[in-house]
Each structure stands twice: as C-alpha cells, then as structure tokens.
Amino acid sequence: MGGCLVVRGEQKEPLQEVPADKKKKIKPIKLLLLGTGESGKSTLFNRFLMDHGDGMSDEDRIDYAQPIFQLVIRSMQLLIQASVRMNDDYDSKITPEISAAVKLIMSLRPDHREPLTTDMADAITLLWNDSLIQAAFQYRSAVPELPDTCPYFFEHVNKLTASQFIPSPTDVLRCRCRTTGIHAQHLESTRAGDNTSFEIVDVGGQRAERRKWKNVFDQVNLILFVVSVAEFDQVCFEDVDTNRLEESLTMFEKTTNSGFFQDTPILLIFNKTDVLREKLKSSYRNKFQFRDYDGPVDDELQIRQFLDKSFVESDRTTKPLKTVFICAIDESLDLSVVVELVLDLLDEGKEKLKQKALQNSKPAA
Asked: Binding positions for Mg(2+) (predicted)?
C-alpha cells in the first residue's frame, strides 16, 4: 500500500528515543484520543504503541488471535446473509461447491474463537472468490457490522489454521475490536534539545462508551480527534438511521465547542483515506454524497477539501486547530509527522494562553 499522508505544514525531524535516565524527569503531556466507533482511533493508538511506545510482545499480540478468528467467520457469515438478501433464488445461482461452503461457514458460531480448520479456510477462500459474495462486499454499506479490513484476512486465511497462531503487527492493526474502558500509553520525543513525554489516552467510541469520556477530560493538553473519511455511505452500528460521517461531524462539533475544551488544541485526523479511494474508484459504490457537497462525486482531492472545511468551520472557538489526512494501517506512514503537528499545536496553545492572560490582566479603560 502506498503512502497515504496529506498534512498541512512541513515535515520536521523524526521522533527520537529519550535517554532512560531522563525519562522520569519529564512531566507527561496528556493527549486524548476521541472519535466515533470504527473511526480507527484505536488502530492509531496501536501504531503509537508499536512505533514510539513500549511495543508489542508476542504475548500482547496473542490476545488478538481470538478476535481475528471471530472477525473472519462473522464477516463471511454477514456477507453470505447479504448475498442471500440481494439475490432472489440464491440457492439456484450457486454451485454445489459454494453451497457446501455456505453450509459449513453458517454452521459455525459467530463468536468462533479457535484456529480455523483447513476445511474452514478452503471454504472462506472459495466463497471470497465467488462473484455474489464480491458483489455483497461492494455494497457493504447495507451491512454496518462488516469490518472494512475483512478482505485482508480472507486473503491470508491459511495462516489462521496454525495451532499456535501469533498475529503479526500487520494483523493487529487490521483487527477490529471495539474499545471498552480506558487505555493509556506513554511515548517521548526530542526536538531541538527539548525532551517531551506524552501520555496518550484512548477511550471507546461507541455510543455506550461515550458516557465514560468525561472521566478522562481532566488536565487534557491536546485532543486527537479521529474521523473516518470513508463512512459517507454507511450507517451507525447502534442506529441504522444515522449516517456515520454525520455522526462524526456532530460529535466533533460538540467536542470542540464544549466548555471543557475552549482553549484545548485539537489535531483533527481524517483516517481511512485508502478505503475512501477504493470506494470512489469502484463501479459498484454509491458516489460521494454528504450535506451540501456539489463537486465531482469521484474527485478525492475536492472531497477531502470539502470535509476539511466542513469540520473546521464547525469550530466556533479560537483554539489552535490543525488537520491531517492519513491511512493508519499504512506501514509506510511516519507517525513522527503527527507528533510534530502535536508539538506545534502545543506551542501555539501556550502562546494563545499567554496572550489571553495578558489581555485579562490589563486594567479596564
């Protein structure tokens, strides 16, 4: 996969390791990851963990094995069900081999958590190459539960038959697990001789989890708000009447204008540019429609510019705000660029607070 980073501003020197004897002296800066469900913020959290944090051991990655098995089986079951709905007389349109594969996969528990057998893997491969299943995937906007990363696992399904399967870092980044609770990770950077220690906090983006957001609002220095740009044609998992991109914009507007964050800098991260590009190129897909957009429905650049403008204009504060477009699962993405944007925003935030304090200290005329 090619590079998917588009950023306002210039790239600066990369993130560096801080000497161990200096780490304890650095006061952590609290970064809060927010966004709706399926935006990819937990994937970004894992990227920070892998690239600039403590990393992931084999034991850490083993925890993702069962969710991956479940993702593969449940995703194919959803595609089979969608294919049946889309095709009258479905049984008459499939071969005996496809029929046998359907029966095998549909006989499994949706929460299947064991390594796949060879027969299961062969059935997944056969079904994924079937034209009716492919068509169902292209029209997946009607299947809100379907993860956008399932093709990756279908294409690498044979490795899931290993009795001691240990997910690779690439597997972990493509695994979709709904975040529950609160998770924190530390990383550090060096720029121009200054050491900076960060604490990144990730909380669940599903509606039921958002009630917990206020528990981590205290002493937040900067918000990383993640938006999936590819969800213009999908509805929320919890509410089939609400568009996911609309939900993201609504949540961003509430967050940025909240009394909690009037002066808190925000880095607005538009994620899943790879999925957006794939959708715009597909002949199956609905073309881009969102609010009052009237530009070319397949022009990625104009769509990005429209989304950037729509979100930024919803901010009614004077806080520092920057935007960046990324593909979080792209392993060529250099996260030090994101870190540099964070550092720039923090500097701008400090300067704005100084100016505000000076203005407040002036005697009334």
From this structure: 42, 179
